[in-house]
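Need residues for this backbone.
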């Protein structure tokens, strides 16, 4: 069938393109969405017509024909007003948004308390308003994973690990990185190193504890539970905990602190200053995240940079594979972190 140019600026539909190409609207939809099932010559013919006609599928038409929403739910257990105050959310969400846009998907943010998040997430998935789910802040024992799997919603977890083969996830080396910074402090001559860790409900914080303990064990230093604490990713927790540690007798107080986040470490730095100590001369401190805050503390903070951009990209790639009915390979991935050395560690 000859192709006729759209001289009258008629708003073309996917059915018009299908008629011009002599194929079904479903075949055109598969070409538009880069899906398999279309021969090379037919695909090239349809693409030529689309280019000649200047056709752009509307979001509604595309989703209706493909029976997809072309939207991905990103679920976070926080209010919308708190969303971008966290240490890792802005970079991770930006990476995910860019990766989804390049695949032709939109990003739907789902926020609220854990109960609100779960309720809305399951409703959006059941109603077909989202094609898949990304979960970047799963807590230990959170049953939302099982529920999503039970209703066959494609799901990828970020920053949390699962032993089950049916769960797809991407994470980074929390344990290895915590061991590295602890080992680095030991090499500086520190033997009393405190861990001011994040919340114990996060698997990442358990891994950081494991890394810290393994470095002590490797260098034959005793693990002292009095030097280990868990708490929220907040500076006042870092301040209060460090103040308590520094109130210990001289032979018992730590000479170095491994903090579970840069925000916690900022509180540790303030407590050291309030106690009349100099960092790193009297107390070495390290953080975790490489938040922009870490370059503006005094002194600048030695920290662990997580590969957030790469984690977001990998998670999107895994999820798109699941949505297309393909088995994600690999089903799990652990990416390396980078130690950023600055003045606070004395290295």
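Answer:
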């Amino acid at each position: 069938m000859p192709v006729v140019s759209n001289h009258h600026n008629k708003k073309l539909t996917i059915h018009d393109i299908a008629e011009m190409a002599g194929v079904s609207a479903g075949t055109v939809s598969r070409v538009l969405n880069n899906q398999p099932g279309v021969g090379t010559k037919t695909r090239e013919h349809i693409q030529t017509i689309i280019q000649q006609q200047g056709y752009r599928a509307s979001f509604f038409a595309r989703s209706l024909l493909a029976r997809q929403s072309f939207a991905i739910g990103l679920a976070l257990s926080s209010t919308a007003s708190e969303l971008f105050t966290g240490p890792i959310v802005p970079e991770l969400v930006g990476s995910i948004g860019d990766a989804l846009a390049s695949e032709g998907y939109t990003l739907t943010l789902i926020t609220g308390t854990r109960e609100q998040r779960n309720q809305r997430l399951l409703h959006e998935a059941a109603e077909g308003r989202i094609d898949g789910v990304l979960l970047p802040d799963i807590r230990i024992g959170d049953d939302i994973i099982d529920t999503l799997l039970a209703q066959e919603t494609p799901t990828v977890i970020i920053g949390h690990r699962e032993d089950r083969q049916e769960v797809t996830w991407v994470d980074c080396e929390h344990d290895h990185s915590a061991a590295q910074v602890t080992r680095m402090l030991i090499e500086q001559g520190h033997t009393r190193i405190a861990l001011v860790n994040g919340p114990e409900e996060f698997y990442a914080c358990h891994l950081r504890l494991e890394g810290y303990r393994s470095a002590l064990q490797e260098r034959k230093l005793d693990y002292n539970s009095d030097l280990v604490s868990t708490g929220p990713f907040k500076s006042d927790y870092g301040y209060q905990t460090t103040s308590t540690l520094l109130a210990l007798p001289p032979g018992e107080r730590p000479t170095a602190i491994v903090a579970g986040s840069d925000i916690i470490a900022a509180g540790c730095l303030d407590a050291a200053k309030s106690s009349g100590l100099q960092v790193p001369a009297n107390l070495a401190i390290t953080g975790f995240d490489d938040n922009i805050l870490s370059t503006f503390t005094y002194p600048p903070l030695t920290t662990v940079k997580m590969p957030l951009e790469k984690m977001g990209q990998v998670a999107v790639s895994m999820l798109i594979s699941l949505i297309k009915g393909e088995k994600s390979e690999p089903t799990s991935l652990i990416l390396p972190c980078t130690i950023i050395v600055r003045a606070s560690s004395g290295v």
